[in-house]
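Dear Dr. H.,

I hope your travels went smoothly. While you were away I took the liberty of generating a structure for the chain from your last submission, since the lab meeting agenda had it listed for discussion. I wanted you to have the full record in hand beforehand rather than looking at slides cold. The sequence, exactly as received, is reproduced here:
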Amino acid sequence: MHCQSCVLMTESELMGIPHISVAKSNLKNHTVKVTGDFGDKSPEAIAEELSAILSKRGYSLSVEKKNHRVKWHEFRLAFPFALGFIAIFIFLQKIGVVNLVNVSNLSYGTAFIVGLVASISTCMAVVGGLALSVSANFAKAGESFRPQILFHFGRLVSFFILGGVIGAIGSGFELGVTGMFVLNLAVAVILLILGVNLLDVFPIMKKIQPTLPKFFGEQVRVLKGLNHTLTPFLVGVATFFLPCGFTQSMQIYSFGSGSFWTGALTMFSFALGTFPVLALLSFSSVGIHSKAFFGIFFKAAGIVVIFFGLLNFTNSFVGAGIIPPLFSF
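The corresponding predicted structure, in token form, is as follows:
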């Protein structure tokens, strides 16, 4: 598991099984405690049964703790993908389409690209899972597309409005050079931790990844079970509060902008960047986690995010006047 979104996803999948009454995942030791009526099945048989259900999300269960193995061979394909993406980013930075320097001049194109990268992470996978599960309640009535449309519409609207609210709140604070430096540094640290965790090389780093309290994710899970016409829309709105580091980094940017419109358009651009992959996940039931190459996708995304984090880290010191510019792009 990579983050609290993994916790939410695994618990949500297992709690959807009729004979399971309790499912509690633990990110620190990568375990899940399950209570239910399994008859006289052995623990091994139960683990195999539940693994078949979780495998579509990229997870598996075993009775004994497995040693962590780094799949180094996946980097052979991940690096070219990541370097190509970074090259495109630098080109776009050169021509002024995107900009990742500091909070005050983050471009909407950059927010869109960060959203695009986030869309293949486990953070966004849980959003795609929510979109599919919330629409299941309406599928029996023959409503396949309306719930999905409402979900994505609610997500885009909420990111615009709530992003604007965060920006407006930020306008009430006189951050100054020091405040902006701290905000930029916070974003850089979040991105670096996210990137390292996506590489799946140092499991211990997953214990220090900052996220919103699990409470928010649990409330979203409760909300999705409501069978009301507007439930898909409300769940889409609630995804703004899911424990996702990418979303949090953009929320910090929005706060630092000190402007309703900048915050609104930044968060909207980020949500728009996540839309293509999320739409593919929800409308076609295609899951990145179900593919053989999901580890390559994660590692490529991790390398790109580390690049963003390092760039933002150095530019934090540049913006504060502590060091001279290190890059010409």
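Two observations you may find useful: The beta strands are 20-26, 31-36. Residues 285-290 have pLDDT under 50 and may be disordered.

With kind regards,
E. W.
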